[in-house]
Amino acid sequence: xxxxxxxxxxxxxxxxxxxxxxxxxxxxxxxxxxxxxxxxxxxxxxxxxxxxxxxxxxxxxxxxxxxx
Length: 68
What we know:
Layout: E1 5-10, E2 13-23, E3 26-32, H1 43-57, H2 60-67
Antiparallel strand pairs: 1-2, 2-3
Helix pairs in contact: 1-2
């Protein structure tokens, strides 16, 4: 992946890789390579993915501060 990008896979959507991009001190969903093999991905799921990734990388506090 390019610099400041992370590709992640989630159990709920295993065939649809999600690309995250870093902005300042946290990551947000940049794009989803959705496939018809998975259910459509809603905004709620995207926000949950962002929070999970930021928690895993130790940037959850910055992300939550931004969300307020």
